[in-house]
TrEMBL record:
Name under which the protein is recorded: Zinc ribbon domain-containing protein
SMART domains documented for this protein: CxxC_CXXC_SSSS
Matching InterPro entries: Regulatory_FmdB_Zinc_ribbon
Domain Putative regulatory protein FmdB zinc ribbon: 1-41
Recorded superkingdom: Bacteria
Length: 89
């Protein structure tokens, strides 16, 4: 079960474990029993392995690759004039 964060107007934020089949937008406060709303936070990266953290962040920036460095295609290049059905390979 994933952990979700909710906010109560009286008590503040709290985290709770909920089933994905339950109502994920509202919950009841464990201290005052009022209806609370879910708030969305990014996942915690401070507890993540530093190598994995760098790999995730480097995946966000596009890499510039020159045409000559692209992998060679293994698809046969067909002459379009000889092939009566150019949509088939």
């Amino acid at each position: 079960m994933p952990e979700y964060t909710f906010v109560c107007q009286r008590c503040g934020e709290y985290d709770t474990w909920k089933s994905m089949n339950s109502n994920l937008q509202e919950d009841t406060c464990p201290e005052c029993s009022e209806v609370t709303k879910r708030i969305y936070k990014s996942f915690r990266t401070n507890q993540m392995d530093s190598k994995l953290y760098k790999r995730i962040n480097s995946g966000m920036t596009p890499k510039i690759v020159k045409r000559e460095n692209l992998p060679k295609s293994n698809v046969k290049q067909l002459n379009r004039n000889k092939n009566p059905m150019p949509w088939t390979l």
